């Protein structure tokens, strides 16, 4: 097929982009997103600071805008993210013990209930591990102890039993200490019946990164019985080196049956969170070499 979304759909996959609602009024942005992609994720609008600025007071307008835009065009929506150490509203940051636990569960319940039936997957927990495989010493970890990730997944499952529930992280672009720690957690969850359905590999990369174990890493997670998704792909660099790295990631997903889709972390270099032009469309919404590489990989799978 001739677009990213349609090409991914031929193998039952999605190809999505992270979206900022305030850009949807720009025609180049909206046209590119609507034409090329068949899935979206809110870059910021569904995070804790955006959705629950005050305790128990939920504001869904930003996320709802993105959901309605996507639904009107038949696009899927991923949910990002229910619990994260970053972008917590101020009122959460000082909570201790059971006050934090109750706030976490209440937040998961409120947001996942609201978006039930509208998002096909949730990043339930984001970035809870360090490079060496230890737990990140966030307020959640320090106040709630090792069990907090399991508690978060159980709360999400109770609120939306049909959404695919994912653990999501970066720096997991091969077999390394961090990805192995996450692997061990997922294996433990599966053996004890903790509801986890998928693992998200953010894949914030640079051209030329060593991806020699990228595919085998995806495969070992898939072999645990979870789906794997490329959730925040971007590749700093340019030209053929950038294109090659994008191609390697896309081919890896296509080669793993349980790799259900790819999301790039933005539509255009113009609005990327990075300043090294890491996306598939340039500032003027022109297709880059990286675009062609991804499209070809989707079509040869
Ligand atoms: O909306 C406010 C605006 O009102 C204010 O004037 C402006 C001034 O700084 O800030 C705006 O908010 C910014 C927001 O992006 C929207 O642009 C925040 O400061 C800024 O911190 C926020 O950055 C986001 C970042 O997560 C926060 O940690 C990026 O857009 C977003 O791309 C990035 O996404 C994360 C994923 O969620 C998780 N994985 C890593 C990834 C990249 O860091």
Automatic annotation (TrEMBL):
Family note: Belongs to the glycosyl hydrolase 10 (cellulase F) family.
Keyword Signal attributed: yes
Positions annotated as active site in the UniProt record: 232 (nucleophile)
Enzyme class (EC, first level): hydrolase
Catalytic activity: Endohydrolysis of (1->4)-beta-D-xylosidic linkages in xylans
Protein's name in the database: Beta-xylanase
Superkingdom, taxonomy of origin: Bacteria
Keywords tagged on the record: Carbohydrate metabolism, Glycosidase, Hydrolase, Polysaccharide degradation, Signal, Xylan degradation
Residues in GH10 domain copies: 1-297
EC number(s) reported in the record: 3.2.1.8
Organism: Glycomyces artemisiae
GO terms for MF: endo-1,4-beta-xylanase activity
Biological processes annotated in GO: xylan catabolic process
Iron-sulfur in keyword set: no
Organism placement in taxonomy: Bacteria, Bacillati, Actinomycetota, Actinomycetes, Glycomycetales
Parent-protein residues present: 40 to 340 of 476
